[in-house]
Amino acid sequence: MKNKLLPVCIMLLMASCIKMDKAPVDAYSSDTYFTSEQAAFKNLAAIYQYTKMSGFFEDGNAIIMDDISDNAYNPFTNQLPYFIALGTATPSLTGKYADLYRTYFPYTGIRSANVFLDNIDKIQMDQTKKDIMKAEVRFLRAFDYARKMMCFGGVPLVTKVLQYGEENTLSRNTEAEITNFVLTELGQVADVLPLTRSAAENGRVTKGAALALKARVELFVKDYANAAKDAKAIIDLKQYDLYNNYEGLFWEKNQDDPLRNKEVILEVVYNPPTWGSWIDALYTVAEGGWNSVNPTQSIVDAYETKNGRAITNDPSYNADAPYTNRDPRFYASIIYPGQTWNDRIFNSLEPVGPDEYYNSSKGNRSRTGYCLRKYCAPTDYLTNNSPEEAQGLNFIVFRYAEVLLTYAEALIEQGTNLDQAAAAINEVRARVNMPPVTDLSQQSLRQRVRNERRVELAFEGLRWYDIKRWKIGGQVMNGPVYGVRPGKVNMTTGAITFSSPNHITVGDVRVFNEGRDYYFPIPQEDIDVNPALQGHQNPGW
């Protein structure tokens, strides 16, 4: 932690969350920098940036988190998720892209938050504005600690500006202590943060965001009573609703639609060219993408038929026409062989057209034969025609559908108000015209809400946390990764003729160690410089 808790230069002031004059600052000095309201906003912008709430490649990596779950596969040996999912990552493995360990463990954001809170009162400005800014910073610090807790367990709890060398004396607080700090902070700031923001303030946290994070953490630690309470509090605010276009929710061209924004509780806002979202890691080869997120057969099979039944429990499901009559969220989230995409028929089953054949030895093709469609709007809709250039696609951190599913699960796990739990699930399903769930037994509803979370929130970076809290890693992560069935695609109609009943495998066998892999390792470089951390690595690492 030596290099992460020392004073930092507040330089990256083209932060994604606040629109303001972002002139660079060459060096940090609390005496000269906390001198005006504008200076306070510049510091606040930097803290938003340092917190890394985004999901895009190397700017938060939340979407890439699905690569270490059963939802997706990462094929690249220069990206850390490849090794994490195979069970071969180590605390010393650094220098990789999408380094989830080094993205989420550093204290840069927390250090900046503590500096802000220690110095903001030097500024003469409207007290209400100042109090709201303090609450924002405390939220961001709580978000950072919440993610650390969910990934690493107990970590050092730092709430003040440290003196030089003091960082090397900090031992780990317990997971319970971090959790209690986060929930206490969020409970307090929720009463200070505004209910709504103006369009110019889009991306800044609100009361709803504080309650959404609080409910997410409470669900994670199985505090179901409070998770239900806080989720219901968000519902009762009457500020949020589901957007009627599931696919369009993740398209930049709809970000000015007030109906779309009713679902968004908090998002990271991008404004190219000053600050752009880089989404080329998500696109197919033909659009210049890398396919860093390869959807698996497992997630494909998780989508129900349009009859609202699992494919294993619907007589109408045809294994030789597997992509017909499925949950509309499947078509909005995954590109599959034979689908029309960007004015072409996508064919990953044969070595034709762009290098998208799953068995090719060239290019950045998907190894599973499926590609990501969520976030990947048709190129005509992009700010710039190529995804290889900076875009203005925001990343949604919290949205109303998650709140409804949190409310439902928390009720289900308590075994109370199961009719209300079903109603919340059905509200999410109704948005995409999926039939309602009708079996109100606790066991059935538990199964339904878990699958509903998986398909509704697919590729939003939450699946690994669900696997962890449900303790199903050994069940869903061990073994081969499966993809499409081999065959041919009619390049006129998109019809598929399969040549084998068996699904391909990517060639890698995943290993999930139940006694180790529910926690990330503390990065070895941080342990090496801090005697107080030595001997306190997470079990198995």
TrEMBL record:
Which domain of life, per UniProt? Bacteria
Residue limits of the RagB/SusD domain?
277-541
> Cellular location of this protein?
Cell outer membrane
State one Pfam family annotation. Answer: SusD_RagB
Domain SusD-like N-terminal: residue ranges: 99-219
| Matching InterPro entries | SusD-like_N, SusD_RagB_dom, TPR-like_helical_dom_sf
The UniProt keywords, alphabetically, are: Cell outer membrane, Membrane, Signal
Main location per the UniProt record: membrane
Question: Which family would the database say this protein is a member of?
Answer: Belongs to the SusD family.
- UniProt-recorded name of the protein: RagB/SusD family nutrient uptake outer membrane protein
* UniProt organism field: Niabella pedocola
Q: Which classification does the entry list for the species?
A: Bacteria, Pseudomonadati, Bacteroidota, Chitinophagia, Chitinophagales
